[in-house]
Amino acid sequence: MSEARPSLYRSTLSLGLVAVLGTALLSAVNQLTARRIAEQERRVVLEQLGQIIPPDRYDNELQDDWFAFSDATWFPQVQQVVAYRARRDGQPVAVILRFAAVDGYSGHIGLLAGIEADGRLAGVRVTSHRETPGLGDAIETEKSDWIRAFDGKSLGAPAASDWTVRRDGGVFDQFTGATITPRAVVKAVRAALEYHESHREALYGESAHPEEEP
Fold this sequence. Notes:
The protein is of the alpha+beta class and 214 residues long. The protein contains 2 helices and 5 strands; from the N terminus they run αβββββα.
């Protein structure tokens, strides 16, 4: 019995050590993966910012002139919205809002909506989604031109009642077999326009936070 007890202690200690090392390794891998995903998404966002507002239209550092906020009235589910501001000679050119349509078919749909200082949409891009391949993924520019239908639109053009998909009486096309996805995107983009109309001065006047990562 006396000889078996130290052996049992050693086995228990070894198992505990293996468990601790395994947990630490798994945590490190998860953190590394999360960082890589975040870095990849940031690269995509920076590339898409240039697609929405061409660099020759502003003279500030767009990726540094930003701030984050939350407003559940226009952007539900306590999401963090990032506003990138484009300026020329210190005057507002446009703001690009980074937010999410929260009621997509398979979850949140990450969006960038560029809004000109006069309230017109400069463009909309999808940054992330989990919509069904071959159906809902037509929101990607690589799959179709559907998202470009927002270019030049504004509140009032089309009328408020037309800011939905055709199946609901609006002007935006739905996808064959996938109405929920485009409906969610249209709803979220319209909300972004409404926020811009109500908070224009705050959007351009808020202090930037270049020392943080959006």
